[in-house]
Amino acid sequence: MADTICRTLRDGGLEGEHAPALTIKDSKASPFGFDVFNYVLTQLSNHILAGKSQSRGLVVVAYSRSPSFYVDLLKRRGIDIASSHDWIHILDCYTDPLGWKNRLIDKDISQEASSLSSFCQDVRNLDKLYSLIIEQGKGLIGQGKDRFSIAIDLVSEMVRHASISSVAGILSNLRSHDQVSSIFWLLHSDLHEIKFTSVLEYLSSMVASVEPFNQAAFGQRVDLENLSMLEQNFRKGKFHVRFKRRNGRVRVMCEEILVELAGIKFTPVLSEDEIINQRLLPKVQFNLQLSEEERNERAKVVLPFEHQGNGKPIQIYDGRRSLGENKEEALVSTGKLQPDEDSGKGQIIYFRDSDDEMPDSDEDPDDDLDI
Description:
Layout: H1 2-11, E1 21-26, H2 33-49, E2 55-62, H3 67-76, E3 88-92, H4 111-114, E4 117-119, H5 126-141, E5 147-152, H6 155-161, H7 164-176, E6 180-188, H8 194-203, E7 206-212, H9 224-233, E8 236-244, E9 250-260, E10 263-268, H10 272-280, H11 292-300, E11 336-339, E12 346-349
Parallel strand pairs: 1-6, 1-7, 2-3, 2-5, 3-4, 5-6
Antiparallel strand pairs: 7-8, 8-9, 9-10, 11-12
């Protein structure tokens, strides 16, 4: 499911349509939204570098982390930073968001990160911020028909310095820009009113919610019984994604997430119908292998069509005559296995139910066959 999100952002939007938009929501009960954001950012960066994405550049609007953090993140994920000047730019809204450090020479950013970033010194002016994002994106791809993607690491910080309507306005304008391929952002949902969260969900074509693994562990007194449940919530979570298709239909998917030092892992979760179907399946075990004794017994059985006379003519009883007339001709068909004292092998003996049993015809259609 997480891969489906990354593929949707990678493929971008059709000409004349709004770009795909992703909202990643988390809360203090399950604070793994930033891990999901980093995962999506890394996957999209790999697609851009491999030339598999519609976008040819990526603009990261950094509110909650410094540019140095994202440079180190891409390095740890094995992404080539040497060529990053051609495809990524970081708009620094973290180091000096209000312009208080404008006169300071050292702004606490590494030289490598400073070459990939530029400062936004007044995050309250969203019109200026919009112009900077578009300007940096066009600086990566030029003025042609190529497109670029946008990643905003925390929309909750934007609301601290601007109104809800203005924040929703800039997100809508960025998504509708003809050179924007895709856009995604992170939101701490428990810090805002429901109406603001609903506005962002309305603007998004995908909404990813990170929820606690054990809901019952929160809001209760901590004791030994639910202590293990709380510990699981700090390592695991549930990842719900709602996709809004072009035809208006909505698809909801769910996965489990596991956060480790190496990164975040996604595991599919079975739906209730799938779990019920698995429980209804019969638990039958089939043994398709034969033992050595069973193979030996099977090899001793001589079938009716096999040559058994050692060169002598084989007479097969065809059921037309009474067994009492010639018992030597009653050698074949389906029935019981009789042991052969001379050869040590088994043979099949057939007895008619009665002499009144009429044959199918007077001639055997297989008389001319040498079997």
